[in-house]
## 1
Amino acid sequence: MKLSRTTIHTFRFLLFITLIVVTFLATSSLEFTIVPSTYDKLNHFVAFFVLALLMDFSFPGSSFNVIKVVFLVSYGFSLEIIQHLLPHRMFSLFDIVADIVGLVAYGMFIPVFKNIPLLNHRWAS
């Protein structure tokens, strides 16, 4: 069974909201103590793993391909450029590396997700 139109729209809405939240967190001067700052790279990894999943499920007509990856890497790079321009943030290549590792990890987990009944509809023909 393929993803329904409603499910695809739900994933697109979640992707949109997640992009807004990540952008806010990346540019805000507020300190969030939910996860200590020592886990910054883990935050990047998880955020981009989730963004990859949401992007992939939002546009199920194509595989998790280079277009989706380039869009998300460009988004991450853009956030770093914006942070460079903010007085309370700084540019970090390590953040971009953590973003890319999150995307690669999602790609590597696709075979696992295909065996999970709740998720495997995304790859149904």
Note: The chain has a mean pLDDT of 91.
## 2
Amino acid sequence: MDSKRIPTINMSDKLKIYAVLICVVLFSACYFDKKEQIYPQAAVATCDTTNTTYTATIAPIISANCASCHSTALANMNGGGIILDSYASIKPYVTNNFLLNSIVQNGSVKPMPMNSPKMDACSIKKISVWINKGALNN
């Protein structure tokens, strides 16, 4: 019978292997993310909603996050026919809770913005406050 010797690993080599494995695990878990996504309550806590109005607050948020699909020019191509570029066009989606449910992404309607990160917590809070105050055209 031909006996083959099984190689052994000395203690020093074992420590090196463990050190490399630990480094790989630790460094592979590190990545950068948005503070608002990791700590949404921190962003909401510093969010000023005292003077939330449609014209000064809500329209710019909707324009920045929704206009690429839901403007008058693009709604039929990209936005399922839903237009959100004026108070009159947004109001029905506020009334039926579609707007808030879609940006909160609670599962009751399709999450928006589609194929993009969720809106930041402060913007969502501003829209929610505006809706809770009656969604006035001011």
Note: The chain is about 55% helix and 0% strand.
## 3
Amino acid sequence: MLNWRLCSPRPNERPIVRRLRVEFQPDALADLADVFRTVLHVSRNLAVARGFVRRIRDRCARIGDAPHGGRPRDDLEPGLRTVPFEHSAVIAYRVEGDRVRVVNVFYGGRDFEALYRGHAPDGDDESSAGS
């Protein structure tokens, strides 16, 4: 029989939650730099661009609170998970041991599924060029 007293915190106590460290892979950092440049170009406002990228980074940090909460995308790559961000970006990451590795940040409707499958998003990949 399950003892509920062992599962729930006592009054005024917080449950013990193991938060994973979040790290950014080089591609993810390059993606964030691209997002910054794009938002800056469109908005012509440095504060808007910085704020947008900061919110993405904050969202990435929160993935460590519930690392298995993202959508599993093993169809694209083993262990890959994704979470949406403000209806304008997708964060791709992997849970590896005691950490989360953010591998990419896709912004503005980029066809990340085609990129992971090795096809150019516009269908002009090399494999179809010779057909």
Note: The chain has five helices and five strands.
